[in-house]
Amino acid sequence: MKTLLITLAIISLCVAENIKCTEQQKKAEACTYEYEPVCGVQVDQDNFYIQSKATYGNKCSACATEGVEFYAVGKCEGYPENAVFCHPDISSQQQGCTREYQPVCGYFDESIKCRKAACGSNYSNKCSACINKEVNYYLNGFC
Ligand SMILES: *[C@@H]1O[C@H](CO)[C@@H](O)[C@H](O)[C@H]1NC(C)=O
């Protein structure tokens, strides 16, 4: 039991999900100017993996922007240019993943101490990468 609790504690420390904008945040009419940049992501209605992103001064101004669905902490420029961010709903809405083999490298939050150099892990496809809560974004191909 103790080991389980410790394991759970460690796992929850490692979870750095992208954060979904709430309906309230989307309706915000004014935002403060505090500078805590986030990478706001707009997502295609039919495909969570088709995205466009931009840096905003804070989460309020990101979420108040039409079309922005969720955000990742920090500037977009801090992530690889071709990074596709995992939509926060993927793990809850997706029951499972197809076995389609199209390898991607899923990246964890940089604050996690990575045992492997690049903070990444190979997955057989984008769904199996993003369904893991600890994966923030992926790049096509092997790590
Ligand atoms: C991912 O797979 C490639 C090709 O098999 C391998 O060279 C690489 O070391 C793997 N990377 C990780 C982080 O497991």
Largest sheet: 4 strands, antiparallel
Q: Proportion of β residues?
A: 25-35%
**Helical stretch count?**
5
The rounded Rg comes to 16 Å
Derived structural class: alpha+beta
Whole-number average pLDDT? 86
Low-confidence stretches: 4-15
For the record, give the distance between the C-alpha atoms at the N and C termini, rounded to a whole number.
35 Å
What is the strand and helix layout of this fold?
Blueprint: H1 2-14, E1 19-20, H2 23-26, E2 38-44, E3 47-56, H3 59-63, E4 68-73, E5 84-85, H4 90-93, E6 104-108, E7 120-123, H5 126-130, E8 135-140
Antiparallel strand pairs: 1-4, 2-3, 2-4, 5-8, 6-7, 6-8
The structure holds 2-acetamido-2-deoxy-beta-D-glucopyranose.
Can you walk me through this structure?
This protein has one domain. Helices cover 22% and strands 29% of the residues. The protein has five helices and eight strands; from the N terminus they run αβαββαββαββαβ. The protein has helices at 2-14, 23-26, 59-63, 90-93, 126-130; strands at residues 19-20, 38-44, 47-56, 68-73, 84-85, 104-108, 120-123, 135-140. Residues 116, 120-122, 142-143 line the site of 2-acetamido-2-deoxy-beta-D-glucopyranose.
Keywords:
globular, four-stranded antiparallel beta sheet, 8 strands, single chain, alpha+beta, 5 helices, binds 2-acetamido-2-deoxy-beta-D-glucopyranose, 143 residues
Describe what is shown at a glance.
By secondary structure, the chain is an alpha+beta fold.
